[in-house]
Amino acid sequence: MSHRVRSAARRIDAATPSERDRAVDALRALAIAGVVLGHWLVTALVADGGRLRTASPLQDMPWLAPISWVFQTLAVFFLVGGHVATKGYVSARARGMSYRRWLRARLTRLFKPVAAVLVLWTITAAGLLATGTGVDTVHALLKLALSPLWFLLVFAGLTAATPLLVRLNPLWPLAVVLHVDLVRFGLGGPSWLGWVNVAAGWLVPYTLGAAWTRGELERRRAGWILLVGGAVATAVLVAWAGYPASMVGVPGTPVSNLNPPTLAAVTFGLAQCGLALLLRASLRRAMRRPTAWAVVALVNLSAMTVFLWHQTALMATTATGLLAGRLPGLHTVPDGLGWVAARLVWLPVFALALFVCWAAFRVHEQSGAYEQGGGGPRRSRVVRAHRPSHGPSHRAAPRRARRV
After folding, report:
1. DSSP assignment of 130-180, as one string?
2. Do the Cβ atoms of 143 and 249 come closer than 8 Å?
3. Residues near 155 by Cβ (< 8 Å), separated by ≥ 6?
């Protein structure tokens, strides 16, 4: 088994184009892993009588806020997304590809896995209501299951606007976020104004990705400026301006840093982007190891599948666990360290449930996988190399992959 794993890793390594920047894929994989683990750690479904309700350990244990600093990694995902999209758009235009064809290829990869999630949860919700499950419980489950879709809608909007964003300075959307928060919190403006930051806030890391494509962030100095400047600004906003310390929403709090994004969330994202840029060289060295690269490559091939189904994996485990009674860390109120310890034990079970979802639904994403930075209908060589070999020996596989 060990030999087969190493052989498969070598095939994937050999099938990867030499010009591919593996650090980009590593950063995307880390961002996805952060989001998944973060949700599994701070999202609880409490069994309360005959219904399930959502809760968060950050509500009763606010000193756990640093967990959100580690696992709220959406800014890195938008950084990588902006870099890949702008690089792909420039490359597509150089090859004479139309904007419509380029956008269709990008959005197909993004939204193709969504249909399976919507179908399954439509059937599930109808079945639960038909069997007498309370509307509150069904609403809580649907909200968790479909919450990843807001991210896809924002990301799709920014992707569609890529031709307009190729040269946009990140300071412009940052200024919009600053002024929106000044009006909301400083001048008592309407709360709905904060929704402007849904676009402006995520535009900041996305346009930083465009600046990366333009070669403006290659020096380590740029990474240090973003890391230190973003961290200091966030600390000032939390300590003296009254922004929440948690970088994710906490039930019962009047202000969420994430829904909609606040200035603190954006400055924190700048620090994350700076750290990501500083890690590029180390990640490129780490990705030279075939096994490490194979793991990252396979995560990237199923990034949307993992993202869309990780909450379903959590809920499936929770629902199944109810058959054994009210289990600690799964159905109990997240109000102490005992819950935290029990939740850590459940993480491998969530991962196993997610693996089942991945095995069942990955085909909807991998059938549309494309080369990094491309955008045309070129099937990824890594997809082909990942498929089991039934022909000649493994030794010949790397040479075949290079000829594709």
Report:
1. HTT--HHHHHHHHHHHHTHHHHHHHHHHHHHTHHHHTT--THHHHHHHHHH
2. no
3. 78, 81, 110, 202
Phi, psi of 258 (to 5 degrees): -115, -20
Write out pLDDT tens, residues 129-160.
998 888 988 998 999 999 888 889 999 999 99
| Alpha-carbon gap, residue 232 to 226, rounded angstroms | 10
Centroid of chain to Cα 227: 20
Chain-centroid distance of CA 376 in Å reads: 23
CA distance 210 to 215: 9
CA atoms within 13 Å, Cβ hemisphere of 219? 4
CA 372 to chain centre: 17
| Sign, Cα dihedral of 144, 66, 202, 101 | negative
Q: Name the token pair of 250.
A: 């906490």
Q: Which residues pair with 48 in a beta bridge?
A: 51
Residues of the chain with pLDDT under 50: 368, 370, 375-377, 388-404
d(CA 117, CA 290): 32
CA–CA separation, 221 vs 356, rounded Å? 43
Q: What is the pLDDT of residue 385?
A: 57
H or E, element range at 35 = helix 22-42
Rounded distance, CA 118 to CA 130, Å? 18
Comparing CA positions, the residue from 334, 345, 199, 347 lying closest to residue 260 is: 199
